[in-house]
Design brief:
With 328 residues, the chain is of the alpha/beta class. The chain is built from eight helices and 14 strands. It has a six-stranded mixed sheet, covered by helices on one side. A six-stranded mixed sheet has the order 6-7-8-9-12-13, with helices on one face. It is globular. The model has no long low-confidence stretch (mean pLDDT 97). Bound molecules: D-[(amino)carbonyl]phenylalanine. The site of D-[(amino)carbonyl]phenylalanine has 7 residues, from loops. InterPro entries: Aliph_Amidase/BUP, C-N_Hydrolase, C-N_Hydrolase_sf.
């Protein structure tokens, strides 16, 4: 049994607001075929890969935004994607906007909206589903912003935790796979919850503006890519895992998003990086045995973690001011 799997980041260039799903799906099928020809077994697409990054647009009536969501997967528009997954025998991460009719935490059956990703098996079955936990931005129209970022308007906080599942990939008997979506990568808690389940391969898609849209404070532009990669490299190193992080990049209706998709190893090294901000495939061979070193030494959680010292992490939401010295 080999421990080496070949993974691919299938970065997407821009999808314009006027472009229907069939355009994105056709581009994604072409990337799946290229991935297959490169010998890839796992392919990761971006967050909200089927449409433009619609949370930049304000809809007063939420139901008007339903056009950006999937109520079923596969659907007639996404069926070609599932056919290609079966044809090429690939394991695929797909990010999309999900409408689900299910009970909420109070037991009330209702229409719910999530920023979702799934891992799809070569058979076309869904192996695992994740719903984005860390929703950046705001819920109401914010006139001071250069561009809106209305994820808190269109999505509920994900209610599936950060699950990991072990599933076969190619010749590998099993790979411990987990997912994140975009902003999640900036939160070490997300990585650690996956790491505590012995994740070996974190798959994540993102749609990240290439410049600060908050119109507050100064953030040098080059730091946008640096912060994205810093978060992913640190997450991999501190949890002894691989990550495939994939952008939806380029300019959508005048709004530029960064590319720089990367594949990172458990030492935090970038193994491959996209160099365009358009549709681009990058591929790397990942030896899953590399996870063992970190997990059995520096990040041997069972040996070194001291949970009794970490209670603030789950007891507190926001930060609190420290006591002053000398005490008044
Ligand atoms: N986008 C961005 C992201 O986390 C963002 C939002 C950008 C937050 C830069 C903070 C700094 O990459 C999404 N879709 O989460």
């Amino acid at each position: 049994m080999s421990s080496i799997i070949t993974v691919a980041a299938a970065q997407l260039g821009p999808i314009q607001k006027s472009e229907g799903r069939e355009i994105a799906v056709a581009r994604m099928v072409r990337l799946l075929e290229r991935a297959y020809r490169h010998g890839a077994q796992v392919v990761v697409f971006p967050e909200l890969a089927l449409t433009t990054f619609f949370p930049r647009w304000y809809h007063e009536d939420l139901d008007e935004a339903d056009r950006w969501f999937e109520t079923a997967l596969p659907s007639p528009e996404t069926a070609p994607l599932f056919e290609a997954i079966r044809r090429f025998g690939l394991t695929v991460y797909l990010g999309y906007a999900e409408i689900a009719y299910e009970p909420d935490e109070a037991g009330v059956m209702r229409k719910r909206r999530f920023n979702t990703s799934v891992i799809i098996a070569p058979s076309g079955e869904v192996i695992l589903k994740y719903r984005k936990v860390h929703l950046p931005g705001h819920a109401e129209y914010a006139p001071a912003r250069k561009v809106q970022h209305l994820e808190k308007r269109y999505f509920e906080v994900g209610n599936l935790g950060f699950p990991v599942v072990r599933a076969p990939v190619g010749e590998a008997e099993g790979v411990n796979m987990g997912m994140m979506i975009c902003n999640d990568r900036r939160w070490p808690e997300a990585w650690r919850v996956l790491g505590l389940q012995q994740v070996e391969l974190v798959m994540l898609g993102y749609n990240t503006p290439s410049m600060n849209m908050e119109n507050r404070g100064f953030e040098a532009h080059h730091l946008r890519v640096f912060h994205s990669q810093l978060s992913i490299q640190a997450g991999c190193y501190q949890n002894a895992c691989f990550a495939v992080a994939v952008a939806k990049a380029g300019t959508e209706d005048g709004h530029e998003m960064l590319g720089h998709s990367i594949i990172v190893n458990p030492q935090g090294e970038i193994m491959a990086q996209a160099t365009s901000w358009d549709d681009e495939l990058i591929v790397a061979d990942c030896n899953l045995d590399m996870c063992q070193l970190g997990r059995s030494t520096v990040f041997n959680f069972g040996l070194h973690r001291r949970v009794e010292a970490y209670s603030r992490i789950t007891d507190q939401v926001g930060s609190v001011a420290p006591p002053t010295w000398p005490a008044r």
